[in-house]
Amino acid sequence: MLTDTHCHLDFQIFDQDRHQILERAAQHKVTRIINPGTNIETSKAALQMANQFTSVSAAVGIHPNEDFDLDKSTMQQLRILSSHPNVVAIGEIGLDYFRNITPPDKQKHRFRIQLDLASELGLPVIVHCRDAYEDTINIISEWQSS
User: Which residues belong to the signal peptide in this entry (predicted)?
Assistant: First the structure.
């Protein structure tokens, strides 16, 4: 029995053969797939996918390359989405210094807020880290000791 902990099945590229992908996964003993969101819309799509396919679960979160403020409204939407039983994690969250789309300080702030949300809800996290290893480890270490 295998679990794919990071598969963006909601991406448009899979619209034509999503069922076949899930069938092939099952043939290879992949019995569970976690589909992480990268913003509110894709988090909703991940949840919709989880509601449609029994082998799929959702994670909800804001990817570090999403360039907008993580305001109270967005956090409330994440909380609401997270309350669904098919949501099993907060993610895809973290730091990405490779693309430099979002300033690092903003990424760090959003990462910490979403880690706190995961703690509050008792959910694990799916971490995205690209060219930001030291900062990612430091933030996770701070979070775990608080």
Answer: none
